[in-house]
UniProtKB/TrEMBL annotation:
Protein name per the record: Aste57867_15674 protein
UniProt xrefs under CDD domains: PDZ_canonical
Cross-referenced Pfam families: DUF4419
PANTHER family to which the protein is assigned, alphabetical: DUF4419 DOMAIN-CONTAINING PROTEIN
Species this chain originates from: Aphanomyces stellatus
Organism superkingdom: Eukaryota
Amino acid sequence: MATSAAPTTPCGYNVTWREGKPSVGLSLHAPTSIDMGECPYITHVQADDDNGDLDNCAVGDTLQSIKGVSCVGMNFTDVVALLKNLPKPIDLHFHKASTTNGRDAKCAHDVGHAIENCNPTTVKTTFAVSSVQLRQYLTGDHVDTMDDVIVSCEEFANQGCRDIVQRSPTTETLVSSSNGFVRGVVQAYNQHQNLELRPDDVWLAITIQFGLFVNGNAEAVRASLVKHDGQTELEVRRDGSIYTVDFGDMAMEMTQQVEEYLVDPTLSQWLLPGFSTTTDHDRIVGSVVMMASMKKYFTYLFGLCCGIPNVTLLGTVDDWLAIRSRVDKLLEFGLGEWVVMLASILDEFIDAAKGNVDTGFWQRICHEKEGGSGPSYLSGWITAFCVFNEDGKWQGSVRAIDVDGDMFESEYPIVDMDDIPRGYLTVDVKINDNGVTYDALMFAGYMAFQVKDDRREIAPHLGWALALKNGEWRKTDSGTHESSMAVTAADELKMANLQEMLDAFDE
């Protein structure tokens, strides 16, 4: 029997987790690049070239720097040594996302997982069991990607699954199986392959069986597990979108909420793996297994919140003070409720311009509540700028509304998204062009928003226009617009003047 620790490397393998993401990543910011042919433990890498495009780099290609993911506490030599000493091949190819940050987060997660896999504290004990001849597994066409594995699950098709948004990183050669633990052991036994087992493998096999037991006997064991009747909805919220948040981290947080409803709060600690071999990947798997084991007692909601990364205020502090002062005049028109609302908002603008930013206030700028088959509603302090509807009627007093049986409450007005008034005004004008009269309409206000800074910033756009009425609208070669009626009227005037000249000549 042989006992040994996993290979050691200069960097020490310590992964610092911040907000659910490791601060260690495969980012070779050194001027030198790594020839992947020198590293047998990388089979495929999604890398970032100099122009920011994502390239598929195969073995033998040059691995470029991946932006935004730093090798904290590592240098170039350490990274190379780390990768060469990983106990298993590492496949870091699943790094596509809708944003650069999302891509980098996935890369960091995968590299963190790789580092944890070569934890030097892992003890290996190898012993002989029988004298059968060791055989190589003949993969043939049976090697699968992690996506193949998930798609092969019966529930994926039966429950109409379509897109795999996130999944655990693929670091090994895989073969799909409805029970990778039991059937994997049977495969090794029948085909004479060696077998490797971790404490996490054995314990999670037990907890998955326990989960089947609980779900099959939910009411019989309810009193032993939870303190409530029926199903309680639990929610974990994150800023971001479905393509940028870390659902694994959210699953781990969800189990913390489950604890509050358990008869024995230590049950979650008992269920979740916590061994010398346990990685964050194992903790995520354990968390989802725990959620599934308790699904007869809870429903789970991952709430994703949109947000604005940065706000830029133009103008001086005096400018914002002037607006605050001007608002007070609205009191003369009986608009006290609106003045109070605007004053508190503008005070935050003034503080921000002075450098005293309340990020909580700016995060409350807007909140949208979707109403299923019914209307959607908008709240947040932005609704202070749509308190009057198209007819000038006040709609700024609603602070609570029932949305599909769920009471939606806010400190700011709640407005139906369909009732957001237009952000511009129009006015009729007449034009007397040397005796020819035209009816026209002027527009002024917010008829668009501007997309700027390499399409990463939005700004309201003020505009104005004058349009002639009762004419056929058309676009000219110069890019401006004119009315065909204007051309016709001008032609008529010329004809009238010409006729007068002819009449005078005849006389």
